[in-house]
Each structure stands twice: as C-alpha cells, then as structure tokens.
Amino acid sequence: MHTAQRVLPAVSCLSCFAFVKYCWTATILSGELVYHHGRLHVDSDGSVTCDLPVDTTISHAQQAPTLPINHETHCADLAGIEDLAIILKTGSTEIYEKLPIHFTTTFLCVKDRLIYSDVQQYLSGESVRDALVMVSQESRNKHSDLEQHALLNDHVRLNEDAAELKGEKSWHIDKWKFLPMISDAYATFGDSKKWYFFIEADTYVSLHNLLPWLAMLDHKQAIYAGAQVMIDRTEFGHGGSGFLLSASAAKALSDVYHSDKAHWESIIAADCCGDKIMAEVLQAANPPVRLLRAFPHIQGETLASLDWSPTHWCKPAITWHHVDAAGIDKLWQFDRRWRAQHGAHTPILFRDYYAAFVHPRILAANGSLPAWDNLSDEWTSSAADGNPPAVSAQTCERFCEDNKECLQWVWRPGVCKAGRKVRFGWALKNRPALGSADNRIARVEGEEGMEGAVSGWLVGRIGGFREGMGECGAEGRWIIGNVE
C-alpha cells in the first residue's frame, strides 16, 4: 500500500485521529512533525489523509524529513560555541562502532574538540590520543589491569581489530583515563576555553540546550557539574552522562593530580571508578571544588528507558546516554529541526522530546506490544506467590486498570509488573547487555522464558497525565546552583 499523507493543522488532524482510529496521520505537535496510527481516512472533500497500514515499528523520527546542512547558517546561531571544548572519551574496542557518527553530528560545529582512547590512532583524519600513555610507567608496570593496555596496542600494531579484545578487561582500564585526559585537555587549551564538556562515545549532547545553560553560569568560578551519583561518601558526576568543568576547575584538578601523581594513581588502582576519583581530586583542591548537581539537564537515560515524570518534564535536556549511532543522528536531526522552527533561544524540554519520539509510538502500539519490555517496575506480582495479577496478560492489565495511579504494565510468564510512570522500553530481543536501566531488566538470555510476554499502556490515562502536567513556565527551568 502506498503512502498518501498531508500535513494538517494540529486541531483538525487530532480530530481526524479521534474519528478514524487506525491510520497514520501527520500533525504538527509542539512544532514537530509527528505521525499517528490508524487506517485509511477520506475527508469530506474527497482528499486522502493517509493510507499507511498499521506498523508499530515506524516512528515519526524515522519518517521526518532531513534538512539539508548549511554549515554557515547551522553553526552561526550557536552563540558561545567558541568558548567551549568538547572532549570525547572512548576505547579502541568500540571506536569504529561508536565514534564515526559524531563527525557528522556532534562535531560539525565544534572546532575545538579532543578524542581520548587507549590506543593512539587516526580516524577520518582525526587524531585520537592515548590517555593511558600519560599514566606513569611505574603504574603501568605495577598494576595488572593495565596489562590490557599493552595487549590492545600490540593487537592494533599487528593490524588486528581491537574489538576482538572487547570485554571486562578492556572496560576496567577505562577508569585510568579520567585524570590524564582532563589534565591533557587543559594543557592543550588552557584558559583559552571557558568551558570543557566531557562525553563518551555513546553520549548525545544537545548543543542547542547546553550553550544557553553555560551562558547563565559564571565561567570565572571553579565549576564542576554533572548528574549526581553517590558511592560511599563521595558525590560525583556520572561520567557517561557527561560532565562540565570550567577552565579554573580543570586547572585545579590538573594541579592537584600532578602535585602527587603517584598517590592518585594508587587510589585509582584500588577503586572502581575514574569519575568518582575525579571528584575526590577536585575535593582535595584549595579551595575544594564541589559538584553542581545538574540532573536532570545532564542525565544517563535514553528516550526508551527514561521515566517521563514531573522531575524531568519542564526541564531542558542536555545529555542522553547509552545512545547508539542511529539514535544520536535522530536526536541531532531533531535538534536542528527544532532550532529552524523555534529559533536559537527556545530550549527543548523533556516534554518536547516525549511528544516527538515517545507518545506517537505509544499511540501506534494501540495499547500493547508483544515481546516487549516497557520497564514497568513499581508493582510486582509473582504467580509463584499466588498473586492473581501474574496469572496472565489479561489479569495483569486488569490489575493496572483497577489501580488509579497505574499507567502501564508488563507481563511475562509468571510475573506481572506495573508502573505509575511512563516508559517506552524496547523489544526483548534488543534489550541492552549493559546500561543504566540494566537493573530493571530480567536476567534472561535472549527471549528464552519470555514466550507470550507483552507490555501495555493505558493510553487514555497517559493522555490525562500529559494534560495534567500543564504548561511549562520559564521560572525554575534551569539549574544554576545547588538547592539544599
């Protein structure tokens, strides 16, 4: 069946959706072209609105047109970009999988950027620095986990693929990269850059939202900002979510690190996490540099795993984590379209990402998706404990319907889970092996033991949830200081 669709004003198209339940119709929602799910509908004037069949695999983001790139106009309205350096950390085992997309998205307007890995190489003519050669030779000889660094370099030197050495040993050396990477980045740019923003290869950063936030902060202060995480007594910014250092904060870290490098390397060797040690180095500065808690602007979820709640709804989203290459491109394209439609000074709020990427998919699912995990996790019932909701998908759905706070549910043989927050989730076969949502995913290899699994959403209630969120005002939109 061929597509025949036209863009209608939002009101009339939403009316069309109300009368004809099964068709894909195009609408402008929050300034973004989105698609609704349904059957063929012919208007009173005889024109065809759409004739796409039901297809829950199609999202509006895949269908939305791609704007041609005009570098002069695309980058001209990114005020403050000249004051920013973007630093990307990756590893040789993933570099070909994750880095190339950034050359056509993140880096297009960022002239001042650095890439750090565990093997020195060139990719697309871009220098990739080996952060671990900056670790002292004594530590590299002493600590067994750094033997993997030598193995990776030998493997690449023999023209082998470093991805063949992917695994826990290659992951564990990542913690050693943070301090030398930050110190070397500051040595490269110094005070010529007001801001240093650090990301990983699977992090998406919205420059459209980042730059206005930076303009509200005082670059003359020692600022360290990120998505707050606590391990033991150390509060730090989660590395994969992205973190920000002002030039003076980067200098403070570099000075403390180099004043007793052997000490800090011994601390890294004994600890789990380089981003945690980074915060401890900054705390050791004089005066101490304390974390600016920037969540949810900076956060570690994906569009699929995020809980769409009041915590996020009216805040601008600066970063997303665990995003694959296709996801980074879709987010970047959306940012470009948003800026073209709304101008450079209208931030993209979480509610706008929801309207563009998530709600159309929930509507398209028409209430449920088989072989899907929507990450519901606030109520759990087990058939082994004799709980009726876990008997079948129908009893699980009924449990959610009977609970006025419930918005969604997921059933697999013997287990019913339900939630009061909206999440979209992913197909069971696409569940990530690692990720910030990993503790919400049943430990089952592939789809074994998940026969008949299904996720559902109460679409009417979710519509009520959106309406209940109301309008987002400008007051309190940005986080510019810690609130105790």
Topology:
Elements lengths: L6 E2 L1 H10 L5 E5 L2 E5 L4 E2 L5 E3 L9 H4 L7 H6 L7 E6 L5 H4 L1 H4 L9 E5 L3 E3 L2 E5 L6 H6 L4 H11 L10 H5 L5 H12 L5 E6 L3 E2 L1 H10 L7 E3 L1 E4 L2 E4 L5 E4 H13 L1 H10 L3 H10 L7 E3 L16 H4 L5 E2 L4 H18 L7 H16 L2 E3 L1 E2 L5 E4 L10 H10 L5 E5 L2 E5 L6 E2 L26 E4 L1 H11 L15
Parallel strand pairs: 1-2, 6-7, 6-10, 7-9, 12-16
Antiparallel strand pairs: 2-3, 4-5, 8-9, 10-15, 11-17, 12-15, 13-14, 18-24, 19-23, 20-22, 21-22, 21-24
Helix pairs in contact: 9-11
Q: Oligomer, anyone?
A: single chain
Fraction of residues in β-strands: 15-25%
CATH architecture of the domain at 71-293: Alpha-Beta Complex
Distance between the termini: 58 Å
The helical percent reads 25-40%
Radius of gyration: 24 Å
Helical segment tally?
18
Q: How much is the average pLDDT?
A: 85
What would you call the shape?
globular
| CATH C-level name of the domain at 71-293 | Alpha Beta
Strand adjacency order, main sheet: 8-9-7-6-10-15-12-16
Secondary-structure content class: alpha+beta
Total DSSP E strands: 24
